[in-house]
Amino acid sequence: MANQTSQPLNRQLRIPFPTPRLASTALKALQVDPELSPLVQRHLSVVSSSSSSDDHAEVLQVEYQATTNRMLRVAVNSFMEGLKLVLEVMEQLDVDVLAADKANSIKSS
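Structure (tokenized):
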């Protein structure tokens, strides 16, 4: 069903990262793929975390504007697939992530 009000649909995703460098790396990796539909606009940025528990955390913020629910759903699903791939690569290859995992496993032992 199409958007009855013909007003654009707006959604925002906020994905936290443990370090500013990882958030910036994710941003650079994800912004190279433009939206395929002219009916969807996407803006990616890295913003400071509002969490007071971790001053170093950064958030990848993704803002969507779409003309229909369907277009918004397809765009967000596609973005999430790309994000999943970026996170898997970071987990496997990034030195900081591997060091943090090792430190966390030592603390829990």
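The chain has a mean pLDDT of 83. The radius of gyration is 17 Å.
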